[in-house]
Amino acid sequence: MARYYSFFMVLAVSLFAFPGTLPAKDMVLKKPPASLDKLYPPQSKEPQFIQQMHKMSGSFGGVFVNMKEGDWENAEKKAQAFVEAYEETSKMVPEWKDYFDLKAVKEFAAAVPSRDPAKIGKASGPVGKTCGKCHGEQTVAVWTRYHWPKVDQIKMVDPVTDKELTYGKFMHEISGTFKGVTVNFGEGQYDRSSKALRDFKKRYMELKSTCSKCHTNDAVKEFFVGQPIAEAFDNLARELTAAKPNPGNFWKNVGTIGKLGCKQCHLTHRSYAIIQETWEEE
Length: 282
Known about the structure:
Layout: H1 2-17, H2 48-68, H3 72-90, H4 102-111, H5 117-147, E1 155-157, E2 164-166, H6 167-186, H7 190-205, H8 207-211, H9 218-224, H10 227-240, H11 247-281
Antiparallel strand pairs: 1-2
Helix pairs in contact: 1-5, 2-3, 3-4, 4-5, 6-7, 7-10, 10-11
């Protein structure tokens, strides 16, 4: 029993080593090498590199699944499949060749026929370490460049001016009308604030159609432009047409839009967009 407990502890370390972590001081987000571009759309029809990652992960993990089930014949097959997939991957991105340790992988595969869980677990350690290092240093950059949609490719019609704008310029217009609402309110210019609110609402609610360019699930769009936001706009409109607007109610509803809408969306999307923009400027 102790033997198998030790094996599963090593297995857990090996499997969870794949994602990889780095000390904060060592985290540097670099643009992936150009040679990786050919392995992802639009240069490649399929995302070949991530497919290869799944191939490696499936065969490596398959060894341990089969071991746990006592299916040693398939465990050996999975080990050989992992060696082949690992060798293929090591040639795909020349700039990343130092992340691969073919000797360690072959030693791992050679250990599987021994049917000794402790020996196999020990041999898997150096393999997981190499994978973890690459993942720790490159995963965020790869996902940002190849898996996160680029907002600069989105264009939309401004419902206030009827002009076609890029996503970035449209967000600038939204920000401007938002400031028009709050600045004028602070100055006691309630008519001007009310006019800015109408434009702000038109632009903000237009984001529902913008979200549809990536999200086909209505529930996702409702998260940022849902009922609480619509109610906050209605409350602001009522407050601005009141005989004596209540500052507490006004700022409470402004906060609802800012926190549930703008901030939540920015927390989800903005960091990726900033990184992409920075790389494009290089």
